[in-house]
Write a structure and sequence with these properties.
Layout lengths: L2 E4 L5 H4 L4 E3 L3 E3 L7 E5 L5 E7 L5 E7 L8 H18 L5 E6 L8 E6 L2 E6 L2 H5 L1 H12 L3 E6 L3 H4 L5 E6 L5 E6 L2 E6 L13 H14 L3 E5 L5 H8 L4 E6 L2 H13 L7 E5 L2 H10 L4 E6 L11 H18 E11 L6 H15 L3 E8 L17 E7 L1
Parallel strand pairs: 1-4, 9-10, 14-15, 14-17, 15-16, 17-18
Antiparallel strand pairs: 1-3, 2-6, 4-5, 5-6, 7-8, 8-9, 10-11, 12-13, 18-20, 19-20
Helix pairs in contact: 2-4, 6-7, 9-10, 10-11
Length: about 400
């Protein structure tokens, strides 16, 4: 077994069971891409078994901190079984479920979502790429599914020296699927949709939004970066009289329209706008528009902490505009999915936007990803989605 020896003092994160070893921590040692290596402290003490990546700044991703453990098919079966057992306990109100959430499930670089009887997997690191065939077979065996679509087309694969890959890994068939979420029917295309086809992480936040729309009698709703309209359907289910949905993707807006009609809502209550959100907010403000509720669910502005300052300006600007557009007593749901922007920083950004807008508000709730996307105590970076529900004063 090849060994990776760390510099003195660089073992602290592994002793805290954080699964990443950065290139600058390595004193010596090399291996093939994805090969299992023994990670040692500067004095040779065992720290972890991990998957090596010679091109990534994350040089090793830890599989296990148990020296007696073997990294083999049986190991991956145990990890998949544990992930599936947790999801059964959580019993999410959907047949669209995140089954494996990377580091949170002890499988760094692997994301697996289940849509009905179809699995969609992302193999995002050299280690999971090396074990791809075995993992695919284990996932199908343990879930009873017969089809697995691969969506390993994220840009992070390039950091691992891997080419993008998308297509059926096991089985074949239509990529257009329908899922149940709460009382709604929603569709997706696993081949062309964002991420693995859908934003399952917002499931519980959509349900909460529907409740708040009904509770506060929010009639006129603006859904920004709406994608295929999950929050639009939630607003209509909550009784909103009118929902304006803004996105720059025409195909997403077409699917949104099908979601509105397919869930039995009057299409006259929904307006889809193909536009840049920032420009639309400014135009609405100039026109004197006011909304009872606004959802801001933008794409990732800060992939890493290095982009946080630029992202903070973008988050602040859209939140300032939204708070100005919001009627007194209205509700703002605002999110960041940027790993480089923590919850505390995001709160400060939104607070700064409120000051610039000349308004105040009460925080109704702090929001996060659905429980099947769990962060862990040892890996806080997994808490990528954070949000605030704010009632404007």
């Amino acid at each position: 077994m090849k060994a990776i020896r760390l510099l003195e003092g660089k073992e602290r994160s592994l002793l805290r069971r954080h699964p990443w070893v950065f290139a600058g921590s390595v004193a010596r040692g090399k291996a093939d891409p994805g090969e299992t290596v023994r990670v040692e402290a500067h004095d040779g003490r065992f720290l972890a078994w991990g998957a090596y990546s010679g091109t990534s700044q994350i040089r090793v991703r830890a599989w296990s901190f148990d020296e007696a453990e073997r990294i083999d098919d049986a190991f991956f079966k145990r990890r998949v079984d544990a992930a599936l057992a947790l999801r059964r306990r959580l019993a999410p109100a959907s047949d669209g479920v995140r089954l494996v959430h990377g580091e949170a499930d002890g499988l760094p670089g692997l994301v697996v979502d289940r849509y009905g009887d179809v699995l969609v997997a992302q193999f995002l690191a050299a280690g999971t790429e090396r074990w791809k065939g075995a993992l695919a077979d284990i996932l199908l065996e343990r879930t009873g599914c017969t089809r697995l679509f691969e969506r390993s087309d994220s840009g992070v694969r390039a950091l691992e020296g891997l080419e993008p890959v998308a297509g059926w890994l096991r089985g074949a068939g239509a990529t257009e699927l329908e899922i149940r979420e709460h009382d709604w029917r929603l569709t997706l295309d696993v081949a062309g949709g964002h991420k693995t086809g859908f934003y399952l992480d917002q499931r519980d936040n959509r349900a909460a939004f529907a409740r708040w729309v009904r509770q506060f009698g929010l009639a006129d709703v603006l859904n920004c970066y709406c994608y295929t309209g999950g929050f639009t359907v939630a607003a209509l289910a909550g009784g909103a009289a009118r929902v304006t949905s803004v996105d720059s993707s025409a195909p997403a807006l077409e699917r949104l329209a099908r979601h509105v009609a397919g869930n039995g809502f009057d299409p006259a209550r929904s307006e889809a706008v193909d536009a840049d959100v920032n420009g639309h907010l400014r135009a609405a403000l100039k026109d004197g528009r006011r909304f009872d509720a606004i959802v801001l669910d933008p794409p990732k502005f800060a992939p890493t902490a290095a982009h946080a300052e630029r992202a903070a300006r973008a988050y602040k600007d859209i939140n300032r505009l939204a708070l100005k557009l919001l009627a007194p007593g209205g509700l703002l749901l605002t999110f960041s999915c940027s790993g480089g922007v923590g919850a505390e920083l995001f709160h400060k950004i939104v607070a700064g936007a409120a000051i610039d807008a000349g308004v105040d508000g009460a925080i109704l709730a702090r929001l996060e990803g659905a429980p099947d996307h769990p962060p862990t105590l040892a890996f806080p970076e997994g808490e990528y989605l954070k949000g605030l529900a704010i009632l404007k004063a």
